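Make up an example, fold above all:
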Amino acid sequence: MPTTTPFDRLRQLALKTPEGAQELLPLIDFLETFPEQGTEEDLVHLVGVTAMGIAKARQGGLWDGGRWLFLRGSAPPFPTHPGEGWQVLPWRYGDETYGHLVLKATDLPAAVPLLLSISAPLLAWRRAEAVRSSQNQALALQLSRLNTVFELTRNLGQVETRQDLVRLMANTLMGEFRIMRLLVVDPQGGILHAKGLGRVPEALEGDALHELVETKGLVHAIELQDQNHSHGFAYVADPVVGSLSEDDEVFLHTLLNLTSSQLSSLELREARLQADRMEKDLDLARNIQRSLLPQTLPEPAGWQCAAANLPYQAVGGDLYDLWMARDDQQGDRLHMAVGDISGKGLPASMMMTQLSAFLRAMGDRRVDDWGRLAERLNRRMNSVRDGNRYTTLFAASLNPENGDLRYVNGGHNPPLLVRAGGEVVRLAPTGPMVGLLPGVKFAEGRASMGLGDTLVIFTDGLVEAENAAGEELSDGPLGDVVRRLASAGADDLFEALLVAAFQHLEEGRFRDDVTLVVVKRMGA
């Protein structure tokens, strides 16, 4: 039976972890091969081959400022400024630069800089080993620390929270270097982990942090940084006996680099999970909002209706509704409402849901006075509104038999009543916005629709649509469309109005939710 190596197990674990951790695979191969590289030239060759493999580059090498330490393909004449289509990364540790990695590639995977950050300390180890008297001691230390890297890498891939990850890193450092005092803080000074320091507050900043570091002898300060993203700082005391050697500091940085990389992967995974949860919430809100809009529009004999809503985001704050309200004595009425909640997105959508429920409950039967209904609605919306949210609202009752129209306009864009003869009447506001101010009064407006008349109701997202020159559409072109198509039905008018809006936008897009309702009394 073939033997399963630690590298095999590490690869299996990396393949099981979320996307991002799989970038460790070529680094595992690098670390597995590294112990076999007996000379500095062998290590340089391994770094170059590994980097080119990760980046899928056919040309490149390692330049030390005077000569090519490693080269595949043609050499650019100016290695540190090779020109377009090449990538250059410094190969350094601390203040010392060992050279530059030069690759012909459009971009570099995240694993390439991590390879350099890991291999640079390993190169430092190689150079330190050259001056050691006992090669066996150096090799034993190296193998032990590589095993620590493997174990830390494997365990980092298994933890699911930042707190557990930092705790694992801290325990590894304290066990490896026999350190008894350690402090880890996030970029804002929040305490992520503290050991051997007594009681510390939840956060430390400025002088308080400096004082604690000084009094507790935390002489080593290392930033937990991955690429250009900082996760905070680790402050470490010297070991119980002696102090950290140059090799110890190299290895300390290597372990912290691995931890920083995994912290970035963990944050990316959490961000993706949060995005997935948000998308599910938006799907639910979108489905709820769609269920509130009428699936089919009521059309009394002699009347045609068309309506639609185009949300700016996944969900919106616009509302439209048309329904038949029962009136056993005077005949059923066609009720209609169009509202526009201030703001966009999910908060506006939730407010719109409440407005829709209130309207249906209050207007399910004949409304004696739409002004008084708006006053009741205003009280309800003031009691439940979120912050400064309010709504513009046009709500009306239409008698299909004679065309009488009773309405209330709470700060809404005046709907256009286009007469069969071409006259355009704007149904101006009869009160302020609903839910903006408590105790305000609303009046009921009246109009009449004759044969061939058309009522166009819309939200400001339509008439405030701007073209490339910043010019708004306004409601004038809407009336022009209806006059030009005087004999058209509601569906054709609705389509023509949207076409006019899109033609005005040219290559642009709406900046707000858009709702459009067309009600047409057909001629004889």
